[in-house]
Design brief:
single chain, 419 residues, alpha+beta, 7-stranded mixed sheet, 6-stranded antiparallel barrel, 25 strands, 15% helix
């Protein structure tokens, strides 16, 4: 085995109740826009030319909160409350008395969040508050509030909680679409319970799709130090505006290794508004199975470059079928937005309001044509996912991605590229 293979990293998600730490790989690290928030001064430069974030922290730090959660006890059947060497353990063993099971204890977890409205609406990660029986929010001034979970969306990992308070400090909402790789950003949160800790770094990439991820969030990748407890905290740009919610890290150990991922704030705000207004997240549905288009497939279909989403199946009676989509079509754009990668399609479909018309530009039999679909709606908690290799799970946005089998390649006239 080569060193490269020996260092290969598997991908997994962890629970917030353990501070976002259980094993390795991808870890969840354990409305209206804010109006009237104080304008933050862009960080000044130090004598050496590095940014100074002190003004940002002073103006925006008070809107960042610590979130503590209590979750239901875990059943402990067969687990002894005593360990070998414990006098009580020896007592039960000596007199052959059955050792009672350990009493289940409530699980404790923590995370971060930030206030987006003066009347107490707070954004955080879904994995921080899901299954919580009690949520406590602690402000910078040490005031504590019992919080109500308004809603949580597993697929985007966004949750909204509410505390009963008024005239709270709020963050300023930025535009993540303007972020560029190499740009300075900063995070504020409670890593390992150290409240209002500040870390900084640069944007490594934008619109990053995570392998084997069940949510189709176009993550912001940074090298900002993010650790368990930072879950749900804000990512700021240099203007002191929130551009993302810190959500996951990529790691072999469960700790920071230079790869951190944040949910773009515009996607989070949409989820927040849906949860507050409708009690659920409304997502569009198309009803197709697609796969990525690589160079070999592009050549086989007569495309001048590898782009788009290749349709391998259409659900009967679905919006896609009604619109006239066929297996073998390559969707080049949807809603006027180009499909560079197959993972772009579920994002665009999910962002389209159910019942709205969605224009589709497709490539069929060597020529382009335009179609129009009326987007359907998935039930709450149904979102797109990219199946793992060799697996084609039902598309939670009506979209499934998989590789073409040999029979499918012959059916569509594809000679290569299905392997």
């Amino acid at each position: 085995m080569t060193k490269t293979n020996a260092l290969a990293v598997a991908i997994a998600l962890t629970a917030a109740a353990t501070l976002g730490y259980t094993g390795s790989e991808y870890f969840p690290i354990a409305s209206s826009h804010a109006v009237g928030a104080p304008a933050a001064t862009a960080p000044a430069s130090t004598p050496r030319g590095l940014p100074d974030f002190t003004k940002l922290v002073e103006s925006q730090g008070p809107a960042v909160v610590h979130i503590g959660v209590t979750q239901r006890p875990v059943a402990s059947e067969g687990q002894s409350p005593f360990s070998p060497g414990d006098p009580m353990y020896d007592f039960f063993r000596r007199f052959q008395i059955p050792i009672p099971d350990a009493v289940p204890m409530p699980r404790q977890g923590l995370g971060s969040g930030f206030i987006v409205s003066p009347d107490g609406y707070i954004l955080t990660n879904a994995h921080v508050v899901l299954e919580a029986t009690e949520v406590t929010v602690t402000l910078v001034d040490k005031r504590e509030f019992k919080a109500k979970v308004i809603g949580a969306d597993r697929r985007t990992d966004v949750a909204v909680v509410k505390i009963d308070a008024k005239n709270l400090p709020v963050v300023r909402i930025g535009d993540p679409s303007k972020l560029k790789p190499g740009e300075w950003v900063a995070a504020i949160g409670s890593p390992f319970g150290f409240d209002n800790s500040v870390t900084a770094g640069i944007v490594s990439a934008t619109a990053r799709a995570l392998p084997a991820s069940e949510n189709y969030v176009p993550f912001i990748q940074t090298d900002v130090a993010i650790n368990p407890g930072n879950s749900g905290g804000p990512l700021f740009n240099m203007n002191g505006e929130v551009v993302g919610i810190n959500s996951q890290i990529y790691s072999r150990t469960g700790g920071y290794m230079g790869l951190s991922f944040s949910i773009p704030i515009d996607a989070a705000i949409k989820v927040k508004n849906d949860l507050v207004e409708h009690g659920k997240v409304r997502r569009g549905r198309l009803g197709v199975t697609v796969q990525a288009v690589d160079g070999a497939l592009a050549d086989s279909f007569g495309l001048d470059r590898a782009a788009g989403a290749l349709v391998s199946a259409v659900e009967p009676g679905s919006p896609a079928a009604t619109a006239g989509l066929q297996p073998g079509d390559i969707i080049l754009s949807a809603g006027g937005k180009p499909i560079e990668n197959s993972t772009d399609l579920p994002r665009i479909v999910s962002e389209t309001a159910p019942g709205a018309a969605l224009s589709l530009r497709v490539w069929r039999k060597g020529a382009g044509r335009d179609l129009r679909a009326t987007v359907g709606e998935w039930a709450a908690e149904r979102v797109a996912a990219t199946p793992t290799a060799g697996e084609a799970a039902p598309g939670r946005l009506g979209v499934v991605v998989h590789r073409l089998a040999p029979g499918e390649r012959r059916s569509y006239g594809v000679q290569t590229g299905g392997g």
